[in-house]
Hints:
By secondary structure, the chain is an all-alpha fold. It contains 6 helices and 2 strands, in the order αααβααβα. Helix 4 (about 55-85) runs antiparallel to helix 5. The mean pLDDT is about 95.
Amino acid sequence: MNLLNSNDFWQFACQLYSKDGMQARLLDYQNQQGKNVNLCLLLYYLDSLNLAISQAQLSKLEQCISAFDQQVLKPLRTSRAYLKANHTEIADYAAIRKELLSAELTLEKQQQQMLITTINSFALTPCSTPHNTSLYL
């Protein structure tokens, strides 16, 4: 099996995220169910490549990004939400928001690279109808 490429995954993720309704669906998974958007995107990516993972492999993927999610991405999202709620009191809100969004995007890409590095250590199973997303969601 060829190793998965993080740039190919990033391109797939950006394209999928921009499709009608997908952003809202993924953010609902994140905000309502506590799911990780990048992990969801990876599972959709694997489905598109007809590759299946096991529940144990899914658990390892969750573990590989857990600390990064808790210590880096979630606090940044919390900061952005706070600033948005209080934007009238923040003189440079637009500039700050733009910088935080850029930083978040860079960090999301880093998390995707972490996922690809981890999944490349797995033996993936070719499958004509994989349902990786249903394992997670």
